[in-house]
Amino acid sequence: MNPKQNNKSMNVAFFIYDQIEALDLNGPLDVFVKANVIAPGSYNCYTVGKTKEAVQMEADTMAIIPMHSIQTAPRPDMIVVPGANPDCVMAYLQDDDFQYTLINWLKDYYDKGTIIFTVCTGSMLLSKTGILDHYEITTHVMLLDALEKHNPKSIVKRGVRFVDQKRLITTAGITAGIDAALYLVEQHYGKELAETIIEIFEYRQSTCNRK
């Protein structure tokens, strides 16, 4: 099977940090990896951290070594921002180092045209960037009220799995990241590829709220 809609591989950077939620990361990552196995050259996936030192997954169950630091990473066409436990996310909003290094790296690429795809509480991490302003957005049900409070210029959508605003895709909790990733594969490379991945996953995809 060959990609039908895009003529080049998409660089997809997975933004990782301490206490990241495992399925927020691995769900969408596996969708794009499977797409590239089935249709070689569709996605080039890699992880990016502040440095190349290992980061701890939620509850310190495992450590992940990023493939790249923010200084060495290839230019991404899309950045995936997984979430973390709500308490961790709210702490990161007050963490100046996190905001001025990792988040500024992400915003710089957004300003250059990179697509941002947040999973679960990952959208909350962007609340001080202005990226979410004037968009319809969503997040995990546990942080919907907080997302609304911190983003008064945005329209927070409730009861949806994900929201597509062209250059910004935000999802509800955890497994919704898989839904959005499958949706993006279909948008980028066609329905046949997305349906093949769904069959391999034995997964029932949900519908979306898109603009």
From TrEMBL:
One of its GO terms (biological process) is regulation of DNA-templated transcription. InterPro entries: Class_I_gatase-like, DJ-1/PfpI, INH-QAR. Gene3D superfamilies: 3.40.50.880. Residues 11-187 form the DJ-1/PfpI domain. PANTHER family: ARAC-FAMILY TRANSCRIPTIONAL REGULATOR, DJ-1_PFPI DOMAIN-CONTAINING PROTEIN. This is DJ-1/PfpI family protein.
